[in-house]
From TrEMBL:
GO terms for molecular function: DNA binding; DNA-binding transcription factor activity. Transmembrane segments: none annotated. This is DNA-binding transcriptional regulator, MerR family. Residues 4-73 form the HTH merR-type domain. It holds the Pfam family MerR_1. It comes from Brevibacillus centrosporus. InterPro entries: DNA-bd_dom_put_sf, MerR-type_HTH_dom, MerR_fam.
Amino acid sequence: MSKQFTIQQISQITGLTAHTLRYYEKIGLLDGVARNESGYRKYRESDLLWIDFLIRLRETRMPISEMKQFSDLRSQGKATIKERRTLLERHQNKVTKQIADLEENLLKIEHKIAHYKALEEEDI
């Protein structure tokens, strides 16, 4: 039998609050989380892997609505693989642009730091 986790354990492992995990389940991002005989959630390793991917999507600024769309497609099985790939490729393009924008901003900050260092050296 594979390892099972409580909501508190998943929260500790992922850094997501129990509230966020329940919200993700409520809106359908986390589908089919098992329950024990007392009704407590019992997450599987596969749930943990899926949550990890959801975190990565969120950290790369994918809107919840797109995450939900991806999750809905995922729950429909192999017939939606092309649509899921397309959705992820669109997101990949956005992330690539974000990275390029960040690199450009970092370069401008580095130039400003170099400028201030030069001014400080003039005063010495």
